[in-house]
């Protein structure tokens, strides 16, 4: 690792390992709860997580992709492990989740409660483990290539000084057809070098945020499918001094899903029908902001989505029809790829102000 990384290591490990000991210690409202209501099965899983783990949750979204039973998951920057313990219930005893984080103090909290959770979930052997390492160097941390079905992350990419490496490593450790599903903070323009050098703004998940257009470019360079925008909420900084420093920059918390798909697959529009067999999505599958698949309804999908559905773990959950007639099928909504536009489109009622502090009582968040 180069010296810029070492510099950020120390700053961030102090920040997350020593300076912050609970979510209310955060100085800004960079993290906001998810804009979507939390489904009951996820609420139940969250309620099972030990309060000492939840108290150190610093995420900025809800990272629960569907169709997880039996899957192998990896959480980049798992912190005290809240998302790992929530998802360990959803992958079940035949699945597994590994959390990786560079900060030992965070991992100590996570590891302390492995037995507690396994007993609570009734699992004979642990389906969770925690590894100390850098998300820019997953293979150096001992994580194997092509070994995960899904990689998740919650409010961490913005903290990395080398975001291209994080995306590349995630791509390498994913199996073919695997998915990167993550929530993070994005800016409306590329952040200036002087703000990027500000340690508090960086540690608070703001000045390290990617300009959303840079994110789309990086994802394409790494080889991922075009990112599917799931949801977005505006971030109100909630701290006058930090806001003054940030000037006109605006921030959103957004959740994207990206897939590792075959490169030479001919992308063709097609008709699909969701079978309704995914736990928690028995009536409809809300795949992203554009596509909601209702059970037994024929829907037309574009070539990108057709490729995702046919080449991922979702392939067994759909019936694929020939393109003979599109006359009597449902059409997707037109949705923006720009998360700032999505926030506007969702309307003010869905835009969550973070006033009152991040990590409020109902769904805690980052900083
Ligand atoms: C904002 S917190 C989010 C933690 C966790 N995802 C959650 O939702 O509670 C960021 C976490 O990422 C870790 N982190 C930041 N940069 C990292 C890096 N380059 N490699 C590994 N972990 C990193 C920090 O140690 C911290 O635990």
UniProtKB/TrEMBL annotation:
GO molecular function, one term: arsenite methyltransferase activity
Domain of life: Eukaryota
E.C. numbers: 2.1.1.137
GO terms for cellular component: cytosol
Segments forming domain Methyltransferase: 69-222
Reaction(s) this enzyme catalyzes, per UniProt: arsenic triglutathione + 3 [thioredoxin]-dithiol + 3 S-adenosyl-L-methionine = trimethylarsine + 3 [thioredoxin]-disulfide + 3 glutathione + 3 S-adenosyl-L-homocysteine + 3 H(+); arsenic triglutathione + [thioredoxin]-dithiol + S-adenosyl-L-methionine + 2 H2O = methylarsonous acid + [thioredoxin]-disulfide + 3 glutathione + S-adenosyl-L-homocysteine + H(+); arsenic triglutathione + 2 [thioredoxin]-dithiol + 2 S-adenosyl-L-methionine + H2O = dimethylarsinous acid + 2 [thioredoxin]-disulfide + 3 glutathione + 2 S-adenosyl-L-homocysteine + 2 H(+)
Biological process, per Gene Ontology: arsonoacetate metabolic process; toxin metabolic process
Enzyme class name: transferase
InterPro entries: Arsenite_MeTrfase-like, Methyltranfer_dom, SAM-dependent_MTases_sf
Family as reported in the entry's similarity comment: Belongs to the methyltransferase superfamily. Arsenite methyltransferase family.
Protein name in the entry: Arsenite methyltransferase
Species annotation: Pygocentrus nattereri
Name of the gene this protein is made from: AS3MT
């Amino acid at each position: 690792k180069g010296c810029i990384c070492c510099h950020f290591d120390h700053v961030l490990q102090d920040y997350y390992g020593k300076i912050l000991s609970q979510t209310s210690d955060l100085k800004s409202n960079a993290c906001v709860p998810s804009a979507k209501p939390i489904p009951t099965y996820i609420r139940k899983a969250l309620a099972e997580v030990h309060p000492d783990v939840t108290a150190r949750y610093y995420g900025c979204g809800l990272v629960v992709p569907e169709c997880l039973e039996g899957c192998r998951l990896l959480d980049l920057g798992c912190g005290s492990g809240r998302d790992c313990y929530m998802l360990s219930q959803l992958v079940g005893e035949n699945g597994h989740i590994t959390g990786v984080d560079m900060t030992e103090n965070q991992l100590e909290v996570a590891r302390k409660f492995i037995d507690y959770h396994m007993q609570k979930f009734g699992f004979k052997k642990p389906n969770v483990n925690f590894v100390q390492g850098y998300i820019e160097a997953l293979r150096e941390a001992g994580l194997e290539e092509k070994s995960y079905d899904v990689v998740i992350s919650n409010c961490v990419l913005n903290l990395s000084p080398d975001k291209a490496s994080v995306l590349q490593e995630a791509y390498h450790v994913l199996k073919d057809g695997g998915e990167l599903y993550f929530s993070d903070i994005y800016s409306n323009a590329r952040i200036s070098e002087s703000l990027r050098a500000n340690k508090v703004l960086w540690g608070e998940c703001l000045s390290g945020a990617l300009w959303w257009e840079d994110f789309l470019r990086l994802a394409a360079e790494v080889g991922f499918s075009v990112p599917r925008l799931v949801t977005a909420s505006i971030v109100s900084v909630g701290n006058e001094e930090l806001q003054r420093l940030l000037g006109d920059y605006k921030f959103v918390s957004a959740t994207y899903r990206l897939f590792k798909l075959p490169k030479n697959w001919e992308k063709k529009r097609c008709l699909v029908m969701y079978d309704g067999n995914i736990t928690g999505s028995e009536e409809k599958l809300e795949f992203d902001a554009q596509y909601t698949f209702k059970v037994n309804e024929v829907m037309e999908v574009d070539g990108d989505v057709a490729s995702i559905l046919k080449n991922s773990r979702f392939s067994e959950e759909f019936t694929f029809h020939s393109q003979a007639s599109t006359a009597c099928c449902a059409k997707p909504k037109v949705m923006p790829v720009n998360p700032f536009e999505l926030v506007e489109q969702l309307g003010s009622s869905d835009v969550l102000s973070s006033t009152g502090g991040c990590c409020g009582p109902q769904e805690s968040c980052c900083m």
